[in-house]
Amino acid sequence: MTSVCLIAGRAAARKMVFGLGAAAALAVGTATAQAADLPDNTAPPVFTNASPTDPITDYFIHWQDRVHEAQATQPHWMTPIATVTPRLEQEVRFDTQFQQLGTGGQLTNIDGGKGLEFIPTTMNEVLINAPAYEERSIKSPAHGFADWNFLTIKQRIISAPEDKGNYIFTAFLGVQAPMLASPFTNKAWVITPTLAGGKGWGDFDIQATVGAPIPTSHESIIGTSLVTNVAFQYHFLEYFWPELEFNDTYWFDGTQRAHRNQLFLTPGIVFGRFALGNGLKGIIGVGYQFALDPQPPVLTPALTPTYDHAVILTSRLAF
Hints:
The chain is 18% helix and 46% strand. It has four helices and 16 strands. It has helices at 2-37, 55-61, 63-72, 219-222; strands at residues 91-100, 106-111, 115-121, 124-129, 133-137, 142-145, 148-160, 167-177, 190-201, 204-211, 214-215, 225-234, 240-251, 261-277, 280-293, 309-318. The longest helix has 36 residues, at 2-37.
């Protein structure tokens, strides 16, 4: 009888131990599940160098990266004084011209229709220009804004820097708006498609453009013309860029200048690029432009060449 009781007691003890173990396991499991449901108050890791997810913000953050890439994949020539360079540039530009007219009058052109040039992609440049302000004196005095060449877009097609071929080819499209209240307006919108190219050999380069200003109205009076510019440029002692330019315009039609041609020669020199800090570079230049053809000037029905000679001053801040 005693042994039977002992056996029964031991069995009961074993059941109690197993029951306590199961209860403990259940309690631990429940506590773990509840803890998992509680909010995690631990601060997430901070990635200070993470790229922004907003594509617009990312575009502007990496703006200068695209500028550097665009300029690293093209020649590093200087923009000439009168000829528009086929290169992509990012700068603010201000020019002034002091012209002597064939009539004996004088005309001062302030700003020269220059302004802001920037590089939004590795293959494009956009020029947003201010309208030039002109003041004519001595003969037929007048003052006001010239027609506004407010927008030009460049599309670079091919290019290679100095160590990989030293060449470039680009297409432009310019738009000019009439300043109707000005005494200097032609009263017409003008669209100007242009092809531009250049080739370099060591420190010497040639840059050229061929464009066709097409008036959208009054074409029978103004005429469609072909404008050709060729600049011969040399570089020495880091900051010196002497040049010689030919600037030619031929009118195909129009009652003002049909079948006439004007040709200017422009010797000059540009100094730069002077480091100013924070990636800014200063550039200045001067040129003397004078008419080779026609001589003497034709006074009627429209003055040709448009002026006899001019001093051109240019200043630029590249960034």
